[in-house]
């Protein structure tokens, strides 16, 4: 494990485009990240008084990544694109992937080199549940090669640690490695995963979203809960609306803490997984609404619904103008905004501040 002021060297680092701050001491990395948030907020007059806390460093610094979306070259290299190119760099000794993912990817690498399959990519997700730990593996390629790649997915079930495999269509010229949700092929179609120690499990399937660092995901969830408890005094009985809820990892935690959550998610299969996990763990009282955030929020405003808290965890593009308007119209006691982009976060916080919600 690296110390808080250390950096680490990587044999792939000169060409691989994966780690943008490779070689920069951790203290400087954290400073840059805090400055990025502070600078984004500073562009808006309504946010001039908003302070930014010190950045919480992730631990561990290596071997942490539980999700890997990797490109496969025609000659069998498995890794990421070289900086500024579409040349695939083989990264068999990547230091940020978890040991389990590294071992699975290496086993796939050996099989691809031996077979010369038309494989275009891999999506590997490590899962750690109350009873089972392993990897959900998706093989990605063109639809015309589906039969061969599904046969390969069956073969991958022989790899130690692989608990389920899927096929994902990745057509030539596609800008994203993973397009539509992968189609289950063999083994487990879904697995139970635990977000926080002692917390409830939620179900995940191939291709589903995950915070890549399990320790930071747990820290984030605990931060949200502690801030809400400070703000409300108690979560017991609090009515909480969560938008972009996914398969309900945070919503299940909220219910366990005594809240009454309503979870909104446009991808209905994720809500079905949530309902199953809640029923199995006897966490009754979780309401769900399928649909996009704009539509559902508009309906809730029109129905004069009231919530103590609204939690939003949008994609990188942030909240749309109608979502921001509806959110302010709900007049919750508190809003928790989980963001992955400082620029859209600042834009949204400024607009919400002008609508009466002070950051």
Polypeptide structure, described:
The model is unreliable at 1-5 (pLDDT under 50). The longest helix is centred in the middle third of the chain and has 19 residues, at 214-232. The strands form three sheets. Strands 3-2-1-4-5-6-7 form a seven-stranded mixed beta sheet. With 359 residues, it is of the alpha/beta class. It is built from nine helices and 14 strands. It is globular. α1 runs parallel beside α9 (342-354) and α7 packs parallel to α8. The chain has helices at residues 26-41, 99-115, 146-156, 214-232, 249-256, 268-280, 293-302, 321-330, 342-354, and strands at residues 67-72, 78-81, 88-90, 121-128, 133-141, 162-169, 183-187, 190-194, 201-205, 239-243, 260-265, 287-290, 309-312, 334-337.
Characteristic terms for this protein:
alpha/beta; 9 helices; disordered N terminus; 359 residues; globular; seven-stranded mixed sheet
Describe how the helices and strands are arranged.
Elements: H1 26-41, E1 67-72, E2 78-81, E3 88-90, H2 99-115, E4 121-128, E5 133-141, H3 146-156, E6 162-169, E7 183-187, E8 190-194, E9 201-205, H4 214-232, E10 239-243, H5 249-256, E11 260-265, H6 268-280, E12 287-290, H7 293-302, E13 309-312, H8 321-330, E14 334-337, H9 342-354
Helix pairs in contact: 1-9, 7-8
Please outline what is shown here:
The chain has 359 residues and is of the alpha/beta class.
């Amino acid at each position: 494990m690296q110390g808080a002021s250390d950096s680490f060297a990587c044999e792939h680092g000169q060409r691989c485009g994966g780690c943008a701050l490779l070689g920069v001491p951790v203290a400087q990395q954290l400073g840059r990240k805090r400055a990025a948030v502070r600078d984004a907020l500073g562009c808006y007059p309504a946010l001039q008084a908003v302070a930014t806390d010190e950045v919480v460093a992730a631990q561990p610094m290596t071997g942490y990544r539980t999700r890997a979306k990797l490109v496969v070259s025609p000659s069998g290299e498995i890794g990421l694109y070289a900086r500024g190119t579409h040349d695939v760099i083989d990264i068999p000794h990547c230091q940020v992937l978890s040991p389990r993912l590294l071992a699975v990817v290496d086993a796939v690498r050996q099989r691809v080199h031996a077979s010369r399959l038309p494989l275009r990519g891999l999506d590997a997700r490590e899962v750690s549940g109350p009873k089972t730990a392993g990897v959900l593996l998706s093989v990605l390629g063109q639809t015309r090669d589906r039969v061969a790649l599904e046969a390969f997915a069956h073969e991958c079930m022989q790899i130690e640690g692989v608990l389920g495999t899927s096929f994902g269509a990745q057509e030539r010229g596609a800008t994203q490695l993973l397009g539509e949700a992968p189609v289950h092929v063999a083994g487990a179609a879904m697995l139970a995963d635990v977000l926080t120690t002692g917390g409830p499990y939620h179900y995940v399937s191939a291709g589903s979203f995950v915070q890549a660092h399990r320790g930071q995901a747990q820290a984030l969830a605990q931060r949200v809960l502690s801030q809400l408890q400070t703000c409300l005094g108690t979560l017991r009985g609090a009515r909480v609306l969560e938008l972009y809820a996914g398969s309900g990892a945070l919503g299940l935690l909220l219910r366990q803490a005594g809240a009454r959550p309503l979870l909104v998610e446009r991808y209905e299969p994720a809500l079905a997984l949530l309902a199953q996990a809640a029923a199995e763990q006897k966490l009754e009282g979780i309401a769900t609404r399928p649909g996009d955030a704009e539509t559902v929020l508009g309906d809730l405003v029109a129905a004069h619904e009231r919530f103590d808290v609204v939690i939003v965890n949008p994609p990188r593009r942030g909240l749309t103008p109608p979502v921001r308007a509806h959110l302010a119209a709900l007049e919750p006691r508190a809003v928790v905004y989980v963001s992955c982009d400082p620029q859209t976060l600042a834009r949204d916080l400024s607009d919400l501040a002008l609508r009466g919600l002070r950051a």
